[in-house]
Amino acid sequence: MALTPSPGSIRDEARPDLYNCEGCAAVAERNARGLSARVRLASAQEPGERMTLTGRILTRDGAPAAGVIIYAHHTNAAGLYADGTPETEWSRRHGRLRGWARTGADGIYTFETIKPAPYPDRSMPAHVHLFIGEPDKRPYYIDDVVFDGEFGVTAAYRAKQELRGGSGIVHLSRSDGGVLLARRDIRLERHPGSAGLGAG
Questions:
Q1: Contact 189, 141 (CB under 8 A)
Q2: Which residue from 51, 88, 127, 152 could staple onto 115, CB 3.0 to 4.6 Å apart?
């Protein structure tokens, strides 16, 4: 599961707006010690097509990144962030299809869920929001997961990618059991004040 980054996908300098992030506070809503690398976001009763989103999180020098929290949330099969709870602002706003994974030594994370739908107004492609929480560092967002060849993933969309964590455009395949498979490998961003090309 090694990742070969595409040209231009690794930014040498820290982004000045790395921490300018609406919703990043949600990363810390769960105790990291209680998290696992594999998480179910959607119950078996959730309407929609079953999808597994997985990948490996890597340090800037390409090693698997352990102990990284990845928070995901997305719309339901109707394109809505529905049925959130009053627990926090983000649980209300992000809806019920959200959760946290924490990588082990191999850097792998997996979310078992459904394929999201575009917003009803068709203002964006279907997407999964991802946020990263590295140990002892402030959280940040990375490029949304979107699906190659589907609505809204146009040449213009590709040109506007920020490539935060690498490209979020993924190709869907299917498991032998018919579940959609999406692979999104992630390269950690450089943090302001860090030096060298290691894990910082």
A1: no
A2: 51
